[in-house]
Design a protein that fits this description.
Blueprint (H helix, E strand, L loop, with lengths): L4 E5 L2 H5 L2 H7 L2 E7 L4 H5 L8 E5 L10 E5 L3 E5 L4 E5 L3 H7 L16 H14 L8 H8 L6 E4 L8 E5 L2 E5 L4 E6 L22 E4 L5 H15 L6 E12 L5 H11 L4 E5 L2 E5 L2 E6 L2 E11 L4 H5 L2 H18 L3 E5 L5 E4 L4 E11 L8 H9 L7 E2 L1 H11 L10 E5 L5 E5 L3 E4 L5 E10 L5 H18 L5
Antiparallel strand pairs: 1-6, 2-10, 3-4, 3-13, 4-9, 5-6, 5-8, 7-8, 7-21, 9-10, 11-12, 12-20, 12-24, 13-14, 14-23, 15-16, 15-22, 16-19, 17-19, 18-19, 21-22, 23-24
Helix pairs in contact: 5-11, 7-13, 8-13
Length: 475
Amino acid sequence: MSSMQSLSFETTQDLADWEPVRSLLQSVRITRESQRRGFEELLLRVGSSDTISSWSGPALAGDAQPTIVGTGVALAIVAKEDASLALVDPNFQELSRALLPNPRPENPGKVQNQPHMKRAGAAWLRLVSSCEGVPGARDFLARTGLVAPLGLMSFGFAPTTPGVLILPRVTWVSTEDSTWRIEVGDAALGLSEAEEACPHLTDPENWYLDPGTMSRTAWKRAVAAVIEELRKGDTHKAVMARDITARADDPIDLRAVLRALAKAYPTCWKFSVAGMTGASPEMLASVREGVVKSRVLAGTCAPGQGEELWDSAKDRQEHAFAVQSVVDALQPMASDLDAPAEPFLLDLPNVTHLASDVSAHLDLIEPGLAPVCEVVRSLHPTAAVCGTPTQAAFELLSVHELTDRGRYSGPVGWIDGGGEGACAIALRCGQVLPDRRSIRVFAGGGIMPDSQPEVELQETQAKMMPVLQAIGLEK
């Protein structure tokens, strides 16, 4: 049974004064457990029925990423357009209901600088500031460079989609030489023991595929309509998303899914936050010691066709748009911007991308705001997931893209008690539904004036393969 309590709040002070939250944050404990533990090993610490929050992936241009596995939810900050919601001890179903998107408005509104990301980061900093003096926090900071506690977050593509910032009941944080355990309150409350020593995938025969929001034919027809609009010249590029739903007879074991993704995609960032689970090749922003780094992907081909991708004027132009959108977003808050003149080829098991790494020093972040959230909301959405110009592309998608993306193609990552952290773009991912037996699998493609609907459809199918393979549906 869940013991969830909730509070709708307008200001961070309202949340900080709420007794259930104060009690939680006064009970944080940090212990150094052992030497470094790997992602798969940490996943064995949690049960298949627990609410899992996780992050794991490679360094980006020297920024080593912590491996994070959290279980249970002590506190969830659900950031919405109008008012935010705090949930204490929610179970997965309660958290999923709180994150349902609002009905799509007639007027799509402004897509950039979404204010709920700002509120979530400010609320987080206000709350964790009361954790000073936590046992083990000083040693944790000295050895890892991170301020405890750590949270995991996931925001939506569109402004009407709620985002969430989660403080797990128990969080394991593994760095280069140590593994730490961060507990909040009664860490055993509502958590199960790991029932199976070895997580297992659902038998392929027990999976069923449902058509997505749009059929393949309807999606190609919509892409053709977008192409006609692009040829008028007002919008240069629009990224169209589509989805399918996979249903299973048995509950999905996210531990097994994450292990499969980690094994197949070691160069990607694996994540799971409130059921949004995947392996993203694109780091939206990593913020450490005042420096922001971002990886831009735009332009895609099948494995082994990198030379053709490199020579493609259409893909090189698409990539240049994406890089410029990142540079433009960072300029008001950063200095010493470094954007390479040429991309590089990033080879993944299922696709090859044109990629560029951009870096800058952060100079203008208002006190009381979380740097990683401020960078993320200035960057989101990039041309790689929305289009160019951003607002014009968003308005075009609001007419032709009938798929509700939810938190697909939004920022997903982690944040420490100082407001630094990292966010990837939620790509190559799926959203586990409240029944825990179904998952919506998403993919998208950048549509240009010379795009071909059938080719774009094939690209989305290739991008869905990581999740379909990870859940055991495809070999």
